[in-house]
């Protein structure tokens, strides 16, 4: 089983850097979710991520950087991309940008595409990247298609027998993955809603963010674009107004569901209707509902504005038919 080391221990950073230098993947806390990190320039290290997760090789990985200088060594920033990075980095925004003429990010990380997804995380993860001196590829630290982890315990439950080291930084404050934007030809295209609200991006960019048409079948050029993803074992039922006997209930805003007295477990993403609190609780509640042995998971409606867009995106993928 994996070792679990607290990031508060002064020796943890050095231990993690040594593991990464050996090409080993390490589970790392970020402000969004826990990531399974490895050297994005090392093909053997990146392969170890795909193998540990059971992740399809066509699904690209985000490369996490310590600063803009590191990012510029691998991708090309337009003035619009620079403006967004300066406004929101470090933070839960990933930009998909053209690769530079001589990128160090390995093609396995980008799934052979001419673009790379890059992000600058907050806190310990950023210190770790700076200490390594190279970008870290870091998808969520869970088996492919499963619910993303927001605590070290979640990682240990899912990947503890597949990796050697988990760094414990406590619960992730954002709780959903980063927002992913493609920035090209003066356009902004939303590839995945996430921990940064689209409205905040539009306020800085002074332009609209284009959203894909439903069922557009757009190619996978960034993580989180597969139709079925974030899936628990139990079937997920969305926009529920009533619970069936034996289901788990995830409600929102303190509004009870009819029949929830017969539910296996009842949880409220945010009794006060706070979408930030709801996002932080989402994956943990899905895991807890699954662990309760429920026949299904009934989820109440969640508003679509702000972080509600990311919450609903994750729920719709969790409820999608399994491949």
Automatic annotation (TrEMBL):
<keyword id="KW-0548">Nucleotidyltransferase</keyword>
<keyword id="KW-0963">Cytoplasm</keyword>
<comment type="similarity">
    <text>Belongs to the SUA5 family.</text>
</comment>
<dbReference type="GO" id="GO:0061710">
    <property type="term" value="F:L-threonylcarbamoyladenylate synthase"/>
</dbReference>
<keyword id="KW-0547">Nucleotide-binding</keyword>
<protein>
    <recommendedName>
        <fullName>Threonylcarbamoyl-AMP synthase</fullName>
        <ecNumber>2.7.7.87</ecNumber>
    </recommendedName>
</protein>
<dbReference type="InterPro" id="IPR038385">
    <property type="entry name" value="Sua5/YwlC_C"/>
</dbReference>
<keyword id="KW-0819">tRNA processing</keyword>
<feature type="domain" description="YrdC-like">
    <location>
        <begin position="10"/>
        <end position="196"/>
    </location>
</feature>
<keyword id="KW-0808">Transferase</keyword>
<dbReference type="InterPro" id="IPR017945">
    <property type="entry name" value="DHBP_synth_RibB-like_a/b_dom"/>
</dbReference>
<dbReference type="Pfam" id="PF03481">
    <property type="entry name" value="Sua5_C"/>
</dbReference>
<comment type="function">
    <text>Required for the formation of a threonylcarbamoyl group on adenosine at position 37 (t(6)A37) in tRNAs that read codons beginning with adenine.</text>
</comment>
<dbReference type="InterPro" id="IPR005145">
    <property type="entry name" value="Sua5_C"/>
</dbReference>
<dbReference type="InterPro" id="IPR006070">
    <property type="entry name" value="Sua5-like_dom"/>
</dbReference>
<keyword id="KW-0067">ATP-binding</keyword>
<dbReference type="Pfam" id="PF01300">
    <property type="entry name" value="Sua5_yciO_yrdC"/>
</dbReference>
<dbReference type="InterPro" id="IPR050156">
    <property type="entry name" value="TC-AMP_synthase_SUA5"/>
</dbReference>
<dbReference type="InterPro" id="IPR010923">
    <property type="entry name" value="T(6)A37_SUA5"/>
</dbReference>
